[in-house]
Specification:
The protein is α+β, with helices and mostly antiparallel strands and about 100 residues long. Helices cover about 50% and strands about 15% of the residues. The strands form 2 sheets. The protein has a two-stranded antiparallel ribbon. Strands 3-4 form a two-stranded antiparallel ribbon.
Length: about 100
């Protein structure tokens, strides 16, 4: 997973080779919270930015994201990271004919 931020005058790309399983709890809670919102507010933006910092093991600060991620597509990129975390965690799950999950072989 990668994110590119403008840091001063240069773009810097951060990556994380492995996302900790613990972050899934935060992702699920945040996704649930977002699904109940009709509009974006300051608290939600702060929660998304904090989440992204945690995904990338705090290699950058909240201010780095707020100042370094372009306004165009800002919330889209943050939510994209959220969805990517959830998708990676659930990618190996299959559903049987009764709707029960079972691991992929």
């Amino acid at each position: 997973m990668r994110i590119t931020l403008l840091m001063g005058e240069e773009e810097k790309t951060f990556s994380v080779p492995r996302v900790k399983g613990r972050i899934l709890r935060t992702a699920v809670a945040l996704n649930k919270k977002l699904s109940k919102k009709d509009t974006l507010d300051e608290e939600t933006v702060d929660d998304l930015v904090q989440f992204v910092c945690e995904v990338f093991n705090n290699q950058f600060s909240i201010d780095d994201v707020l100042d370094g991620l372009p306004l165009e597509g800002f919330t889209f990129r943050l939510q994209e990271i959220l969805i990517e975390v959830i998708s990676k965690a659930t990618s190996g799950i299959k559903i049987d004919e009764n709707g029960a999950p079972y691991p992929k072989n």
